[in-house]
Amino acid sequence: MIIKGKAWKYGDNVNTDEIIPARYLNTSDSRELAKHCMEDLDLSFVKEVKEGDVVVALKNFGCGSSREHAPLALKASGISCIMAATFARIFYRNALNIGLLLIESPQASKDIDNKDLIEIDLNNHRISNLTKNKSYDILPVPEFMQKMIASGGLMSYVKSNIKSKINK
């Protein structure tokens, strides 16, 4: 799996209320949430984000609420991956559950600037900053997690596994 997109760079402790303000949590419709994603932190995000783009942040991305609305809003906005130095644990799990790829890379997260073009090659465990011509090794994403993300999340992954076992 190769992901290529523009970086949306943020700092430390981006919380779930900044990702999707609480005043919009009266719905779990991901398309509706995407219309307001990051608006209290970055007004240009909703207007300019493109399918395949990557959010890059520093420490403790996704701290705050345990609701899935924040990763849902980011995924529905077109974000294909979030790279950070570290993640809040509940955000990490919620994002994987809905099929949103997360990568921890402190050095790449620090070096990448807003709007840099980056490529993430999961097969070769590399992040390339195509704007700055720099590369970083990453830990392999386990195969079952790649399959879960490719399936669209935990529920789809489990359903397809059960279906394949029934059809044997």
Describe the protein:
The chain has 168 residues and is of the alpha/beta class. 35% of the residues lie in helices and 20% in strands. It is built from eight helices and seven strands; from the N terminus they run βαααβαβαβαβββαα. It has helices at residues 16-19, 30-34, 44-48, 69-76, 89-97, 106-111, 143-151, 154-166; strands spanning 2-9, 54-57, 81-84, 101-104, 117-121, 126-129, 134-137. Strands 4-3-2-1-5-6-7 form a seven-stranded mixed β-sheet. The mean pLDDT is 94.
The share of residues in helices is 25-40%
Largest pleated sheet = 7 strands, mixed
Q: What is the rounded Rg?
A: 16 Å
Number of distinct helices: 8
What characteristic shape results from the CA principal axes? globular
Model regions low in confidence, pLDDT < 50 over at least 5 residues: none
Mean pLDDT: 94
What portion of residues belong to β-strands?
Answer: 15-25%
Q: Tell me how many strands there are.
A: 7
Through-space gap between termini: 28 Å
